Amino acid sequence: VVYDEACGRRPRLLVVANRLPVSAKRTGENSWSLEMSPGGLVSGLLGVTAQFDTKWVGWPGVDVYDEVEKRALSKSLAEMKCIPVFLEEVFDQYYNGYCNGILWPILHHMGLPQEDHHLDTNKTFQTQYDAYKKANRLFLDVIIKNYEEGDIVWCHDYHLMFLPQYLKEYNSKIKVGWFLHSPFPSSEVYKTLPSRSELLRSVLRADLLGFHTYDFARHFVSTCTRILGVEGTHEGVVDQGRVTRVAVFPIGIDPDRFIRACELPEVKQQMNELKERFAGKKVILGVDRLDMIKGIPQKFLGFEKFLEENPNWRDKVVLVQIAVPTRNGVPEYRKVKTQVHGLVGRINGRFGSVSSLPIHHMDRSVDFNYLCALYAIADVMLVTSLRDGMNLVSYEFVACQEVKKGVLVLSEFAGAGQSLGAGALLVNPWNVTEVSSAIKEALNMPAEEREKRHRVNFQYVKTHSAKKWGDDFMSELNEICAESEIQIRK
Ligand code: GDG
Predict the structure, then answer these.
(1) Atom 27 (ligand 1): residue with closest C-alpha?
(2) Is the Cβ atom of 370 under 6 angstroms away from ligand 1?
(3) Which of 99, 199, 267, 361 is 20 to 30 A (C-alpha) from 106?
């Protein structure tokens, strides 16, 4: 890190993401309670905060229209180093519309939606696209108000693809990084997107672009070469002599946070209760947002086939599925929820009895400690994402399994398939027979092999932490910016 010796302070880092890492709840008129929600992004960046004076910029998760209320919330958030972006009326078309109705499926190889309202003279598409640009401008306005010379701006994810361009247009000297948390698809899928070139051109204005896996980075570079006609090299993308560095930074978790939680008396108590509750049965666990990319219906179909073909296991195994509600404003998400509920009903109807239910399905999240207790007592973790940037759930399971050494059954289409593939049983979630066989293999795996597989993955999760991810990205960005400063001086 290049310290700013001239003014004797740590360099400032603005981390910009759609959501702030806090949840705001209204507790009364002009008063708010705020809680930090420590996902991979937050824990990754807590590690780099020692070197940087970090501030978070993002939507606070609540709609606030009144100016007095906005000021009150901004003041409370400032104490947590958070700066809110109020999106107001553009939010629905930007977030539910363009981000999650269009970009999210495209990035996950699912193609553009076929809904009637999208076919209606493209009007909805245009409205959503305009809202997306407007929202990116609102982010820019807030950054400009808070920007000081020398600040580094790290933009996150597909919500903010116009931000690199807007930032560089405002001030070409701003150091800009952009990281994509989702996959990047093959150019054949991406090129169906009507606004394909503008989005690519904008992110290419950043100094550093980061992806979870080599495949996503490679897809991105070849998409740029095919759509924009620019040159792709091992460094990244070259356009008229200017290089945009494209590199791979696989995210991780804060493993010690999970290991420590499993030692807490409260968590041990919860683990004992769960063991008692499922005595005599093996527990298969699923933890996903209720998103079509997570392949929950495919998971249930694989489990159904397993029960069909292995009657001896019917009373001896349960699948506990936490399906956290998400993006209810997007029609496709409501559809997948109905589909999932139908399958739970069918499978429990077919194989359940008065005393036992094969699937315990929960349409809600659980608190962190309880989640750790579930991870720790599970015999098998079943991750069947159809596409997934990384999938941190699989890392968290490994971190909590030091005692049990359970088996991870993992989709080959999750980024984690490339990092934890050595210890996991990899499956193609579309292949119901393969999922069913992997469940059987996992449940019957001898202790010695489980131990061996767990050891490999645990070692990986411990060393490839969220802190390493944040540090690696920031040091690469710093290096690039230092090099370009030298070139400018020359
Ligand atoms: C995106 C990409 C990429 C889940 N249920 C509960 C709960 N969770 C927490 C987990 C985990 C997080 O949510 C989910 O992270 P994932 O990585 O599995 O998936 P996405 O939300 O889709 O994340 C993904 C990630 O960004 C990072 O780049 O890996 O591919 O799609 O941390 O623990 N937490 C609690 N209760 C729950 O019920 N407390």
Answers:
(1) 181
(2) no
(3) 361
